[in-house]
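Reopening this one. Same input as before:
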Amino acid sequence: MVSGRGYLKTGQAVHPVEAGESFMIFPQMEVYYYPDPQDPWAYCWIEFPISRVTIGSLPYRCAGCSGICDY
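Same output, byte for byte:
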């Protein structure tokens, strides 16, 4: 995310996301994501075929299976 805040809902968990973080949505993963109404986000969208990427080679750390990442 470039600026602002938002939320990523995976299953029953809601994860706050803020500027400087990103999130990954994996195939077959049901998620909802939405901006914070008081501080809406601006973000960039990047899409790539996960079958061509080894998760360990990505240039940031992912926190468990939540999909929230620092970069």
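So the earlier flakiness isn't reproducible anymore. For the record, The chain has no helices and six strands.
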